[in-house]
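Request from the bench team (R.T.):
"We need a structural guess for the complex before ordering more flavin mononucleotide. Sequence and SMILES attached. Just send the tokens back."

Command: build protein-flavin mononucleotide structure.
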Amino acid sequence: MKRVDDFRLHLGNKDYVPIMVGGMGVDISTSELALEVCRLGGIGHISDAMVQDVSDRKFDTSFVKEKTKTYKFNINNMDKAVVQFDLARLAEATLLHVGKTMEAKRGDGLIFVNCMEKLTMNSPRETLRTRLVAALDAGIDGITMSAGLHLGSFALIADHPRFRDAKLGIIVSSVRALQLFLRKISRLDRLPDFVIVEGPLAGGHLGFGLDWAEYDLHTIMDEIQAFLRAENLQIPLIAAGGIFTGSDAVGFLEKGAGGVQVATRFTMTHECGLPDDVKQEYIRATEADIIVNGVSPTGYPMRMLKNTPAIGSGIRPGCESYGYLLDATGNCSYINSYNREVLANPDSKTIVVMDKTCLCTHMRNFNCWTCGHTTYRLKDTTHQLDDGQYQILSAEHVFKDYQFSTDNQVALPPREEVAVA
Ligand SMILES: Cc1cc2nc3c(=O)[nH]c(=O)nc-3n(C[C@H](O)[C@H](O)[C@H](O)COP(=O)(O)O)c2cc1C
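Reply to R.T.: structure attached below.
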């Protein structure tokens, strides 16, 4: 019986343990998590979502404070078009976040950054170019372009000296999305180094409609493999979404996938950036607690726990401090929903907004509990301790379980004793 360790992901001229841990913004896939995966020979992702805020928390910078000060005059204005990112400061924050992570890199694996292109930041092309260039300048091993795939993203960095040496990949959920992207980049003479095929069970935003349950990752992988074969293209495919055991992963590797991308099982590790109480919420969840809804202003369905505090919250849009989801015209669908409720309830002190959420503020505060569909199985991978809390695992334990387990087994960790005060 095969295990994941019998396979290798071939990228460039090197081989890696074929396990990627996916990007989880905002700082849920921390540098610590990505570094640990890299140390173990796999590929870890950090995320550049809300990088200025992440930098402030980690490196004591004050990017957010500065931006808030600059745009303070606009806080009560419903129109946010004036709020812009200072590109030099954005680059500085990215250089810090990525650069410090790369300085700490050990082991035979790689560190990639997940770049969510739906973070349009009131100037989609320029802010994306700045983020990509700064990540390359900071020495990142590779970039994964995700949610909102900007068909022109490769062209934005085509003149960067590292354009051909850094590993560049994309996330797609259909053969059609891949075909469109390849057509768009054909004149650059540079294919993606890897393509992550994300199915409907993943966490975060989904590349499907609310009919996500009608799709299945194996079928999409088969379609994409058939297309690549017909076109004589050799691009490693990385299967993602709902891969819970080493055997699930082997099921894809045996059919020709180059690797797998996983995330949900790492949300209950010490290295994951979620606060401890939120980790416990994830582990406690039942299948009925996990929903897919349309509250994200990105327009993509998002999977989350149904008791997530972000749902229904009517906080004032935080664009003067954040503003990552402002589109090219300076708008965000949460602003419209919020303004609608304020106008409809002029005397109310508490505003409730059900259809959209202020994703920047809530992701920043870990109040939007996005998760993968298999989250309800996390409790089977650990012990419930005497105080009722679930034991948190090390990323090494989870990584090695994927790497070495067979027969759909999940290895339980040695049980920890609860310290008596
Ligand atoms: C908490 C959480 C946050 C996520 N955030 C992002 C993100 O910011 N960008 C992205 O491309 N994918 C995101 N994802 C998707 C993962 O990177 C990954 O592709 C997917 O969840 C893998 O499936 P699994 O969680 O079933 O293992 C997120 C997933 C989780 C669980």
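Two things stood out. Residues 22-25, 28, 47, 49, 114, 116, 146-147, 171, 198, 201-204, 240-243, 261-264, 267, 370-372, 374 surround flavin mononucleotide (CB under 6 Å). The first strand starts at residue 9 and ends at 11.
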